[in-house]
Amino acid sequence: MIISLSGKISTELPVHATAEKWFHIMTKKLHHIQHVAGKIHGAKLHQGDDWHVNDSVKHWTYTLDGKTVTCLETIESVDEEKKRIAFKLFGEAIDDKYKVFNITFEAIEKDGGSAAVKWSIEYEKVSEEVHAPYGYLELYDHVTRDVDVHLLEGEKVSANKN
């Protein structure tokens, strides 16, 4: 029996904020997510001067499967038209388990003005004993809900000012 060490998993979650607002926070205010997502405990620039350029490296601290862990992240590519961002994760929480760990974020406009956020993870495990990274999909589910509430609160504040 051959067991594959590589795989791709994804989740698509309906959100209340627009795809445009989601893409904006991910491309222009990524550093802000640590302040609104309960399972993200901290984030800082590890290398570089700008959070939103491909050669910068960010250091993230977060809760995964009940444990506080850290990793490093870089932006691989940004597709403005498709509202898609590809990230590469590596470092402490990743390297012991995965040779490859790439995440794709996509803000999707749906019919009728609704939106969804899709997270996809492409990975290659270092051995058969390593589990597929479903804990990360759960983490992104929590982050998506927290950020969506934050984006909606921002809309309410803007509406109250007018």
From TrEMBL:
Bet v I/Major latex protein domain sequence ranges: 4-154
A Pfam family of this chain: Bet_v_1
InterPro entries referenced in this protein's UniProt entry, alphabetically: Bet_v_I/MLP (IPR000916), MLP-like (IPR052006), START-like_dom_sf (IPR023393)
One GO process term, biological-process aspect: defense response
Protein family per UniProt: Belongs to the MLP family.
The protein's name in its UniProt record: Bet v I/Major latex protein domain-containing protein
Source organism per UniProt: Phaseolus vulgaris
